[in-house]
histidine kinase
Amino acid sequence: IRESNPLKTINDEIFVYVTKKQKEIDELKKLELFRREFLADVSHEFKTPIFAAQGFIHTLLDGAMDDEKVRERFLRKAANNLDSLDVLVKDLLVLSQMETGDIKMNIIPTDLRKLTLGIFSRLEHIAKNRNVSLKVKPDDMPEVWIKADADRMEQVMLNLIENAIKYGHDNGKVIVHFSESKKYIEVEVKDNGPGIPHEHLNRIFERFYRIDKSRSKEIGGTGLGLAIVKHILNAHDTKIAVMSKPEKGTTFSFKLEKAYHQQLPEAKTDDVV
Ligand code: ADP
C-alpha cells in the first residue's frame, strides 16, 4: 500500500481552492463589465431623443416660435422624441424586471390563436400602411391552448409580429403558424422580407443590437424587443430559434406546453411563406 503524502494532499486542496476563487473573481469581473457596458448603452440611447427634443424646444424659444408652421412642426418632432423615450423607459423596465427575476409569472391556459388575432387588430394600421397581409395558419383551426403568462405572451407575439411587419417588404406577408406534437404547440412567426444576414443571427437577441441602427430608429425600434422576447420565453422554460434566408424571409419559432390535449387540423401546403 502506497502511503499518502500529506504535503501533496494539502497542495492539491490549495490548488482546488485557488482555482475556485479565481473563477469567482472572473465571474465578478464579467458582471462588472456587463454593468458598465449596460450603463454606457443606456446613457447613449437616452441621450439621442433627449438631445433632439432639447434642440427643437430651444430653437423654438430662440425665435422659431413666431412662424406658425415651424412651431407646429418642431413641437411635433419634440413630442415624437419624448414618445420614443417613453417606450425606451418602459422596455427597459420590463427587461430589468425579467433579468432580476422580479416578475411573477402567472401561468394559465391561454388561447394563443385569440391572442394573436387581437394583436393583428392592434397592428392593423401599420400593416395597412405598408400593405402587409396578416394571417394565422392553419386558418380552419379552432383555439390553440397553451400554458403561459398571457400578458407576457402578448408582449412576445406583439414584438415578433411588429418586427415582421416593420422589417419585411411593402406588400409582404406575415404568417403566424401553429403546429402540434404530443405535448407541445410549435409557434412560428414568418415573414417574406429581406431576411437577416447570417453573421447577425445570433446577436439580434442582445439588448440594443440592431442590424441597421438608423433604420431601426426611424421606424421606432428601441433595440430591446428581441431581448425581451428571449427573457420571457426563458421564463417559460423554452427557447426562441430564428431561421433566415436572404430575400426569402425570416422565421422565429418556439414551442410551449399545451394546456389541454387537442388535435389541430393538418397544415396545408400553402402555409409556407
Ligand atoms: P428593434 O427595436 O430595433 O426592432 P429588436 O430587438 O426587436 O429591436 O430587433 C433587433 C434587430 O433585429 C432589429 O433592429 C432588426 O435589425 C432585426 N430584425 C428583427 N426582426 C426582424 C425581421 N423579422 N426581419 C429582419 N430583421 C429583423
Observations:
- The chain is about 50% helix and 15% strand.
- The first strand starts at residue 107 and ends at 111.
- The beta strands are 107-111, 133-137, 145-149, 173-180, 184-191, 241-245, 249-257.
